[in-house]
Every structure is written in C-alpha cells, then in structure tokens.
Amino acid sequence: MTRTHSVFRRKPAFSASMRAAGVLIFLNALLFLAKVIVGMAYNSLAVLSDAGNSLTDVVTSTIILFAVRETAKLPDVKHPFGHGRTEPLAAFTVAVLTCVLATQVFREAIGRLIDGGEPLKGVAPLIVLAAVILTKSVIWVVAGRMGRQQRSPAMIAAAMDAKMDVLISLMAMVGVVGTDVGLPWLDGVAALFIAAWIAHTGFSLGKANIEKLLGAVPDPSTVRIIHARLNLLKKQNRIRNFHDLRIHYVGSEIHIAVHVDVSRQLGLQASHDLDEEIQAMLQSIPDVKHVALHMDPV
To answer: What pTM was estimated for this model as a whole?
Structure first.
C-alpha cells in the first residue's frame, strides 16, 4: 500500500505561528475600523494616519500567514532546499509597504500644517489609541518571543511592526492631547514624527532581509562559532586542516560549504563517518540547515 505524507511539517511551532498570524489579521482589521470611525468623527489626522498603518498591518499579517505556511512545507522536487526564502521575502514585502505608508502619512501631515483644519476635541481618540497600545504591546512581546524561538524572520517582522505601532500610537496621542489643550498644530507635527518612524523601521527591516535574500554572510558571532568548531577538530587531530570555507544565507537558512583535509590512511568507512559527524556538529548551530563537505586526502 502506498503511503502518503503531508507536505507540511507536523510541528506545534508552525501551527502556533499560523494561528498567531490569523489572530493578527483579525485584531488589525478591528483596530483599522475603530481608528477610521474615530479619526473621521473627530477629524484627527494623527488617528487617521494610525488607521492607514492598521490597514497596512492587515495586509502584512496576511503576508506573514502565507510565509509561515509556505516555510512549513517540506522540500520537494522543485524546491530541494525547502521554502526558507519565503519568510525573508515576506518580511521585505512588509518593509516596502511600510515605506509606502510613511510617504502617504508625510504628505498628509505637510498638508495639514500648511492648510490648517483643526481637529475636534474629545476623549474617544485617546481611548482608541490606548486600546491600540495595549493590544500591540501584547503582540510585540508574543510575536517577538515566537520569532526568536523559531528563528522566524516573518514573526520577527510582525514583532517589529507591533513595536512600531506602539510608538506611533504614543505619538498620535501627543497630537490628540495637543488639540485638547489648544495646540491643534501638534496633530500635524505628531503625524510627521509618525511618518519618520515608519520610514526608519521599514528601511531597517528591508535592509536586513534583502541581505538574506542576496546570500549575505551571517553575523560575525555565527561565523566565529563555525570557525571555532572546525578549529576544535584540528586540535583533536580529527582533521588536518580546512579551507575554501563559504558561509551564506539561503533565505532564512545558513548554508556552509568547506573543504576538509584528512589523512590518506583514513579508510572509506571512517571518512564517511567523519563526514556525517562534522555535518551534524555544524548543523547543530542555530539557522545552519545545509552543510556541503569535500574531504581532501593529504
């Protein structure tokens, strides 16, 4: 009887990430509606700018859900190294959308400062923004923890986005409070700071993930660990030397290629066992998923 296997990994971590992404979509949709209603009712550009951010969050949460689902798939014939590029690609898309939003908010803020248009006073905008800060703070902590545990660029992007939203909402509150105390221009100024922060976050997120997509070398600490483990094998006289070491990202995963010098007296079975041992040792390093060894008899 032919056995069939699911294309998805049956791991609780991936299921939890997909559930978290679904919750993000629902919460961001609710926050968007609340901000639009209150922002239009009280003519607050700071709140409406924050609403545009929530609309972007709905889109980005959907992208994150797709990325987590794709990354959970096992390697197949068309994708022999798996689907690890999906998450940094999704995170880069989030960064692009974030920068587009920053441009729109900046334009609207300049228009408000030039043309005027005093927002209405009221406590409702403050209540909505306080709810945003509370909700996004929880998402910031939970998504950040999940992203670090699973080494997931998509979930880390979600955590960064939530962190940005907390700070954006705090600045939006400055604009609302400014209106209540007779300083309506603070609404436009707050929107300018919001635009600047959104642009900064989007650029940072995009730069980090485009580096992974382009096959950049990992951070120096990871490179040092890889060198240290290979040097340990030399000290133990398991290998004579190593050279042509290449370390780079393939999506969110690290791939290593290295030539290892071994004794000519080492038998075929012993060479095979040493090869597997070295691969297992290097693959135990976080994010290292593939190791290509070339055994050179010397």
So the answer is: 0.58
